[in-house]
Amino acid sequence: MAEATGLVHCLSSLINVSTPSPQLPTMTDAADDRGRIHNDNGFHPLVGVHDLHVSTYGGQRSVPVEERGVEVVWDLMFGFVGSFAMRAAVLLGVPEILGREGPGAALSALEIAKRLPCEKPNVAALARILKYLAAKDMFNESGPEEELRYSLNAASRYLVGDEAGKSMAPLALFQVHPDMIDAFKSLNEVVLAKKSCSAFEIAKGKPIFAYAQQHPEFSKTVNNAMASSTKITMETVVKHYKGFKDLNSIVDVGGGLGTALSQIVLAYPHLMAINFDLPHVVADAPTIPGVQHVGGNMFESVPHADAIFVQNVFVDWDEESCIKILQNCHKALPEGGKVIIVEPILEPSGSKGLAERLAMDADLVLLTSTGEGRLRTHKQWKKRLEAAGFRPRVNIVSLPLPNASVIEAYIS
Ligand SMILES: C[S@@+](CC[C@H](N)C(=O)[O-])C[C@H]1O[C@@H](n2cnc3c(N)ncnc32)[C@H](O)[C@@H]1O
Fold it and tell me: What is the value of pTM for the model shown?
């Protein structure tokens, strides 16, 4: 049995980014005579290597790969830069600083620097980071070159916590946590390993959940990342999926800190709700009115209820483990009971749109962190649910989130 990881969220958070999403170059973007891609927002940031045709994300234009081989290598080579620039901005608190100034506020690098908890910040360095992130559509940039000003846009607003704590910042920090980076450094070793395992296990000596259990700071990072992403996803789930209303009780299996249930019971306060996760995880969970936290192991048994909710847990596990979890859910359900699963569903398609590219990224994140964890297609879901004793008729409720769906199945 493969070891699970908290990466499920990585996957879904990578994919479940609700609109609006950052603007990326498309097939309709125009290229100028130096091959630089530009659109209404100006030149695309990946420009920088003279005399090269700049594509993005490995080339979306119809230029043959033979003509843009060098740029593909540059593009992949610099793939990490954006992640770390965003991390720097989040750690410095730039989105929060801009958010505190009120809607539409635009500050210069100097003004932002003055608000940092540091006596003599390097303003020039901050200006370069901001310029880079604005070019990547992370912030809006305005004003004359000598005094550029930066403001929040649809993307950076997702990095500011609001009163409900809805922010993707914890998730962004988790993806580039030093332990996750260590795992990625061992990706090549996964291929040569004598037995199937994750890069995380090779790098850190333990599968990710077991490691998290012994490293409270990492565990906190994982749990906060999951919770932050879940807040955004669950808002959409509760709005579009009405299958909670006729239930009396519900268990969230692998529910982390109880974030999903907190939103479900807010909409359906009559529900008796149990948040079920590993003991060290529920020990850190906050008190949530109407939600009881229960520690345990989903591979042994899960608490009984009218319905079992499972969000972004199966993506972390191999097929055998997924069936085992589902069998335990089946055992805990009464006649007519159902499982409600929220996960991205893999759409087999040859397209190279944003959702597919993110799915590809997510797949490698799952390989790195969990080893066997991956996305599945509709067909694979039906087969798996049937194997665990659920009815072959599976209801899929599509959500207005790229690749995120609700999968509903009743016990037979
Ligand atoms: C990626 S997280 C998803 C958390 C939550 N469902 C959400 O969407 O925010 C996977 C969760 O599965 C939990 N988990 C892993 N192994 C488990 C086990 N054996 N029994 C119960 N929960 C487990 C982890 O602790 C983690 O909280």
Answer: 0.79
